[in-house]
Amino acid sequence: MWDKPRLLNWLANLLYALSVVLMLYALVFVVVHLPIFPLREVKINGELAHVNREQIKLIVAKHLKGNFFTLDLVKTRDAFQKLPWARDVSVRRRWPDQLEVAIEEHQALARWGNIALVNTHGELFQAATDAELPVFYGPGDGVMEVTKSYGNYSQILNKADVKIAQVTLSPRRSWEIKTNKGLTIALGRTEMDERLNKFTGAYQSTLSRLGLQVVYADLRYPNGFAVRKPEGLSALLSKELAAKKAQLAAEKRLLMMQDATVKPVPKSIPKPVSKTVPKPEVKVAPKVESEPAAAAKMTQETT
Questions:
Q1: Options 3.20.20.105, 3.40.50.2300, 3.90.1150.10, 3.10.20.310; CATH of 41-105
Q2: Is the link from the previous residue into 96 a cis peptide, with omega within 30 of 0?
Q3: Which of 80, 102, 98 is nearest to 41 (CA)?
Q4: Taking the complete model, does pTM exceed 0.70, yes or no?
Q5: CB atoms within 10 A of CB 220
Q6: CB atoms within 10 A of CB 80
């Protein structure tokens, strides 16, 4: 080996190159870790309604370690991705001292039972909200299916000014809807959109105009549907009708009493005074008896 100058020269050049590379790496390492390249600004992009400033400050203080070159972008992205309302996060450096973070928030569409929330993409996420949202029920693999069907059913029922409060997909893939007006609609497993369109047309033209309250509609019939009124509705209507009649009778009596008090009293017509003509007084003279008759009367009395 020592008597081979070419091999020795090649080995010497290799060692020289390695030393140069190591020196450059050490120089770069030292320069990169110098405090002359700090991150001075973190810019958050996106329309944020639920991610607040305090949450961002906490992540920056806890997870952003290093300067402009040494910051681990993967760990930084994962830290922002853990925010409850963050659906997608992208992170990149911006020369010379800026970090840009783009956050896409979840748009809550409904609740998946009492377990989680459902976004507009049919994805489950864990977050808290006080908003009034419809409730979805279904098998674990049916989140996307329920989300798409909810959109279709909402468009159909909006024509009748009816909002969906609950959508249920059974394990047998049978659909049921509950509305904000207390109406339960059984759609079945086939031709759901067509059945709902027919029912919506009938609801607009007949049921809503008549003011008929319906609590259940079964659309699983081939040529129509069946509806059910709430229990005790007829008794309630009769009571309301009797109360209205009593109220009308009381108002009528009150009006009659008011008319009696307000009715003008007719003026009394003076009676004509009749002038009586005095009748002539007739005097009857006493009857004078004759002397023989008087004497006879006296003798009769003495006997």
A1: 3.10.20.310
A2: yes
A3: 98
A4: no
A5: 14
A6: 22
Q: Which helix (H) or strand (E) holds 119?
A: strand 116-119
Q: Report the alpha-carbon distance of residue 143 to residue 93 in Å, rounded.
A: 36
Which tokens belong to 226? Answer: 């069946």
Output the six-digit token pair for 10.
Answer: 């090649």
CB distance 93 to 68 below 8 Å: yes
| Sequence-ordered list of residues with C-beta below 8 angstroms from that of 162, at least 6 positions apart, any chain | 179, 180, 181, 183, 200, 203
pLDDT tens figures, 2-58: 566 777 677 777 877 887 787 776 656 555 556 677 888 999 999 999 999 999 999
At 120, give phi and psi (nearest 5°).
Answer: -70, -10
Q: Could you tell me the CA-to-CA distances from 99 to 48, 73, 89, 209, 264 in Å, in that order?
A: 18, 10, 13, 60, 94
| Tokens read off for 158 | 């909006």
104 - beta bridge partners? 88
Q: What is the pLDDT of residue 69?
A: 85
Pick the CATH number of 108-233 from 3.40.718.10, 3.40.50.11690, 3.40.1190.20, 3.20.20.70: 3.40.50.11690
Distances, alpha carbon 124 to alpha carbons 96, 115, 119, 120, 283, in Å: 38, 9, 7, 10, 133
